[in-house]
Amino acid sequence: MNNERYQQGLDKLTEYTLNANEETSTHHKIAEDLEDIAPDIGKYIIEFAYGDIYSREGLSNKQRALVTISSLVTQGREPQLELHINTGLTAGLTPTEIVESITHLIPYTGFPSVLNALQVAKKVFNVRGVTIEKTAQATG
Amino acid sequence: MNNERYQQGLDKLTEYTLNANEETSTHHKIAEDLEDIAPDIGKYIIEFAYGDIYSREGLSNKQRALVTISSLVTQGREPQLELHINTGLTAGLTPTEIVESITHLIPYTGFPSVLNALQVAKKVFNVRGVTIEKTAQATG
Amino acid sequence: MNNERYQQGLDKLTEYTLNANEETSTHHKIAEDLEDIAPDIGKYIIEFAYGDIYSREGLSNKQRALVTISSLVTQGREPQLELHINTGLTAGLTPTEIVESITHLIPYTGFPSVLNALQVAKKVFNVRGVTIEKTAQATG
Amino acid sequence: MNNERYQQGLDKLTEYTLNANEETSTHHKIAEDLEDIAPDIGKYIIEFAYGDIYSREGLSNKQRALVTISSLVTQGREPQLELHINTGLTAGLTPTEIVESITHLIPYTGFPSVLNALQVAKKVFNVRGVTIEKTAQATG
Amino acid sequence: MNNERYQQGLDKLTEYTLNANEETSTHHKIAEDLEDIAPDIGKYIIEFAYGDIYSREGLSNKQRALVTISSLVTQGREPQLELHINTGLTAGLTPTEIVESITHLIPYTGFPSVLNALQVAKKVFNVRGVTIEKTAQATG
Amino acid sequence: MNNERYQQGLDKLTEYTLNANEETSTHHKIAEDLEDIAPDIGKYIIEFAYGDIYSREGLSNKQRALVTISSLVTQGREPQLELHINTGLTAGLTPTEIVESITHLIPYTGFPSVLNALQVAKKVFNVRGVTIEKTAQATG
């Protein structure tokens, strides 16, 4: 039954949004915004993306967040990147892991995607009030 | 000095290729193939990609492999994907983690990229003689 | 003679813009904006895009608008998407056909492109004062 | 219940493959090929892509095929393009509509994507033994 | 009149293909291959791409070839890249200029696009029997 | 030693920014902006992009700027395009060469990328107070 997948998706989404009201509301805001022209979109995100895919075994929430962020940096999809850096932090990625993942992509996507993504990360970190652990960056 | 970065890159690359002669030779084969028209390319891959970027702190080798694979699936760059599924296995990713990472991308890239990438993964697994752990897939 | 192709293109463009002064002016505004640095661009759009390509037989105006919108959603080119959702409406696509075409792309491009495109569609529908036919969406 | 979505997807897929054993087997072959490493992929294609998305109201099968082909030409995903030119023909698109849709994309994607896609179309038409209606092309 | 643009395009194309029968036939082969399904494509390439665009003032043939190659490397469109490395050589680009242009893109597209493009260049150089000037590469 | 590559990169960057305080500060502003979350990024841009790649022989600064702009137009990366149209002007490209390079890409990327890029160029030309040489455009 769809409701079971919907409930599973909603539970999973909560794991990515529990401690941060802001981006929970972002997910709900996306669905609400499109309620009048595409009411099923929110349902597909919960049921299919979170209920079917994110709920699979074999990867941790942190790993899923890392995969998602890597794809969005590569695509240059910045509105979604902002959302998923937020959910990544909630799922347990540290700011350093996020910055390092983006930096790691320089040899695979070039500098422009990486520079744009780092500015999105900086913005999210500022809003969340989190900071980079200094030692991990001391590679100069 | 450049030699220091080159040595650091070579050491790091070895961590991704230690147990698998095949893909080590793939990295060297790329450099050799281009020796006569672009002799510096191999040097940049070792010094910059592996010496500067892969050698940074803050992410494990497994995490770097996950980020690389996610980007290459998203770009649809299959020759490189084959190489990096190989290095990912050597770096410690399980076949299940690789398959799940690719599957996780369906909501972010659609099915075509994912189907093509899974066929590359299947080919690499066959060559390496590795198999998927069945339980992790038993989500049906 | 060029003038013949130009006239044919202008006639064809009018079919996509007849009932909506706004997006006609958008096409003219693009050409005007670039008049001082690239005066031939407007000519190529009229002569080649509308005169040669859009004027071909074998597809209806509605079908051409559908193909154009599908490509622009896939590319994530939102300024142009806004223009072509406008011309698509003028060419006879219903709001539901436009929303369904965008939604149909989820399996081929993933959610991010689709969500961004639906927000563009919502904005255009609001400006044009058109609404989705409720019954077609009642699939929940 | 999932089985209901699966059945709905299978029924819908049949509408795109009824008269052409070849591409039905292609869809099944994709699922079978990945059975040992990603057994759920086939299920998601049937349940989500065909059961949820293709089964929506508001667009005809022909329109859905047109949208799919336009996206795949734009992405340059040729293995999938071959499959969906096949399903498009079965869904009722004429060879001319397919060629015109691809040609229509020149102003939006440039010539390279279009030339590659037309060669895929030619190959599919040859295998299916279908030909272009000459009059529709007589625009020279 | 179209014939004038066609003639201008044909003359311009000859500047890119004069000394190399091989890639001239490649351009004609593309048009011939598609003659039965899309007879106007060859005309658009000659009239619009070569007659309108390549025939513009303000850039040399060598510069146009450089721009074309840079775009095709970035897009990862290798069949077309092969053709345009050929026409670039005929237009006067040296093998070193071609290799350096591709290498220059590492910071903008990452290594994968560049490695794939260099292998295409190597293949074309072999077929044409041209070699890299050694001194220009002696940057190690 | 890294300092040597850094100095070489800084010297090379100066060749692209000497006469225009504005975009020099842009390069420094990017590094400064990311200082607190990714302090090595600025170093990699100077050492690798400008020190290793831009400092290679075989292409003039103008040619490198042309290759960079062509790639960024193709990728649709407009923030970076603005920066590199600026550095291209400083490196010696004329406004006409820049506009013609962008226009030349219509057959390879379609109109949308080109139209967006021309608006970026127009904005940069306005800020720099440069204008198109009229005769070069008189192709109508």
Give the helices and strands, then pairings.
The structure is a homohexamer of 140-residue chains.
Chain A: H1 2-17, H2 21-33, H3 41-54, H4 61-75, H5 78-90, H6 95-104, H7 106-109, H8 111-128, H9 134-137
Radius of gyration of chain A: 16 Å
The CATH homologous superfamily of the largest domain in chain A is named AhpD-like
What kind of oligomer do you see?
homohexamer
Q: Count the strands of chain A?
A: 0
End-to-end separation of chain A: 55 Å
Give the second-level CATH assignment, the architecture of the largest domain in chain A. Answer: Up-down Bundle
The number of helical runs of chain A is 9
The two chains with the largest interface, and their residue counts, are: A-B, 35 and 35 residues
CATH class of the largest domain in chain A reads Mainly Alpha
Order of helices and strands of chain A: HHHHHHHHH
Structural class of chain A: mainly alpha
The poorly predicted ranges of chain A are 135-140
Number of domains of chain A: 2
Main sheet of chain A, how many strands, which sense, barrel?
Answer: none
* Percent of sequence in beta strands of chain A: under 5%
CATH topology name of the largest domain in chain A, in short, is AhpD-like
Shape of chain A: globular
Compute the average pLDDT of chain A: 88
Summarize the amount of helix of chain A as a percent range: over 70%
